[in-house]
Amino acid sequence: MVCLVSRTGRHLQRYDNLGRRQVVGCIPYRFKCSSDGAISGEFEVLLISSQKCQKMMFPKGGWELDESREEAALRESIEEAGVVGNVECELGKWYFISKSHGTFYEGHMFPLLVEEELDFWPEQNVRKRAWMDVKEARDVCQHWWMKEALDILVERLSSFQQ
């Protein structure tokens, strides 16, 4: 068994040339299986609750100096949602203001094709996780920029299935 601990602090945090904190997130997803065990074209996504309230979002956090964006995205997914998988091509970059801090951020989002859901993970005592279909996820996700990233993922996955 491996012991995982969440990173804390801002001493390795990245900021862009305008002083915006750079954050990276993932949309963890998996394909649904039919009753006979075959993988269908439908997929579901994993959302997590905020630490401070029960609002739902995708895993995200600071991009640190000692890691790539993809490594940061995977780390956040492990720490916050307890999932491991394959980080795929970036969905995009967004600029937004934190409602709680009133500061500017640059956010990057990636799809994460989930390969394993961990029984134990660093933030399991402060977050809930829930698999949802795309419509429900879009309805409950609290961040507009994450909803836009989800729309891009839906379009991307739809184009692969045609």
TrEMBL record:
Pfam families per record: NUDIX
Occurrences of domain Nudix hydrolase (ranges): 19-154
Keyword Metal-binding tagged: yes
Names of required cofactors: Mg(2+); Mn(2+)
This protein's record includes keyword Signal: no
Keywords: Hydrolase, Magnesium, Manganese, Metal-binding
Entry's Gene Ontology molecular function annotations: metal ion binding; pyrophosphatase activity
GO cellular component terms, A-Z: cytoplasm; nucleus
InterPro entries (alphabetical): DDP-like_NUDIX, NUDIX_hydrolase-like_dom_sf, NUDIX_hydrolase_CS, NUDIX_hydrolase_dom
PANTHER family on file: DIPHOSPHOINOSITOL POLYPHOSPHATE PHOSPHOHYDROLASE, NUDIX HYDROLASE 17, MITOCHONDRIAL
Family recorded in the similarity comment: Belongs to the Nudix hydrolase family.
Protein name according to UniProt: Nudix hydrolase homolog 18
Species in which this protein is naturally found: Hibiscus trionum (Flower of an hour)
